[in-house]
Design brief:
Length: 122
């Protein structure tokens, strides 16, 4: 009985850690734009979250990065994880030029599969 209790405890700790790490990119406070035609892909695996605040600050996962270092960071991730995909989340007040910079940096880093995060409207 004791080994089973240990196993359950370890699984509980594991899932608590994994769930908090998977939400790291969503901790950046953003007011996402609304879309009526958007669809959420069924497979969101191997996707890293790039968040852009309205001031133009870039966050990869939950860590802020310098604008000039975005391409370098994405290239390093692409080299470590060749199947990586990108999910871009930008505040609705963000200038499109910032989103375009993110897309350009991703393309230069070799990441061609990226999606743009929105809130599903009516």
């Amino acid at each position: 009985m004791a080994p089973m209790i240990d196993m359950v405890f370890l699984l509980l700790v594991f899932f608590m850690c994994v769930s908090s790490l998977s939400q790291a990119g969503h901790r950046v406070p953003l007011a996402l734009p609304e879309s009526t035609a958007g669809e959420t892909p069924k497979d969101l695996s191997n996707r890293i979250i790039l968040s852009i605040q309205k001031e133009g600050n870039f966050f990869l996962g939950g860590s802020e990065i310098e604008e000039g270092g975005l391409e370098k960071q994405l290239r390093e991730l692409r080299e470590r994880f060749p199947e990586i995909k990108l999910r871009i989340r930008a505040d609705q007040a963000t200038e499109f030029m910032q989103v375009k910079k993110a897309m350009s940096a991703a393309t230069k880093a070799g990441i061609s599969d990226y999606i743009y995060g929105t809130i599903q409207g009516e």
